[in-house]
Amino acid sequence: MSGWLLCTVRGRHWGPRGAAGLLPFASTPDGVRVLLALRSVNSHDGGTWGTLGGAIEPGETAWNAALREASEEAEGLRPAGMATGTAGRQHLRHRYACDCGWTYTTFPVRLPGGSLVTTRNWENRELRWVPIEDVDGYLLHSGLAQSWPELRELIETQAPPNRS
Questions:
Q1: Sign of the alpha-carbon torsion through 76, 77, 82, 88
Q2: Position 104 pLDDT exceeds 80
């Protein structure tokens, strides 16, 4: 069951067992793009751009939670290796950890360039493919903002940007 974890450092975090999400990326002729989600005003940190993700439920791994949450929030995701089970161990991951012990695990996953992905529920107002070099110009969810330099490096090792 989802809920809030009270935190003496940041106030609160969504998901008493932590949270996880996917950060899809694609190599296109115009360079590397990442899929950002504009969080609806009714969601935690609404109005900021973040990943597709949410709370880890009892008995779930971070990978399984990320897959479940992404499928609840977006239509059209078809990255290679998205099967449940041990597949998550093969994916790149970044773990943001608060000093209170709460964590958010982000899995950068490759999608085919030009994949049409649309919002599926109320949690996100918009999904947008953003050039990797433009992400810093968006108002990012605080956790993503803190994790972005490491996530960008992980993505660029898998999909180097075009250098003209």
A1: negative
A2: yes
